[in-house]
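Page 42, continued from yesterday. The earlier attempt failed because a stray header line got pasted into the input along with the sequence. Redoing it now with the clean sequence only.
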Amino acid sequence: MSEEVVLFRGSPSLVVKAGTFFLGVLLIAGFIALAVWQNQPLIAIGAGVVALWLVVVAVFIRTQVFEVTNERLRWTRGILTKRTDEMELYRVLDVSLVEPFLLRMVGAGNIEISSADTTTPRLTLPAVKGARELREKLRVSIEECRVKRGVRMTEFDQGPNPAA
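This time it went through. Structure tokens are written below.
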């Protein structure tokens, strides 16, 4: 039996929440400016609350971990309660790469996976660094898993129903 090899392990890029971080920085600057202008140090507490909120958002993103091996894909997420979903690669039907402009600027992209798995029919790996290379590794591993298990994918034409 072959050993399972990790092809990729990582978390989404923080760029996925760039708008949230931009808004948070603006709010922090606004609270500090208002506290100085009004000479009310208590207003600066708002800046602290917003900063704490941004830390929680960053921790939430970083607690999502994707692990892609040559046989399966695991997605673990959660801060207090952890949840792990797995998808066997031989069950994958399609892998798509979506590269929004902002993610392309930082060398990342979203990988969308659809599978024959009933519990996880669709899975998106958001803001993955090196998404193009990972997609290619996935494609090769999926084919190898299918050959190893003797699985053949068949496609049926879902054209107009003649009985209708």
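Notes: Residues 74 and 86 are 4 Å apart (CA to CA).
Reminder to self: strip header lines before submitting.
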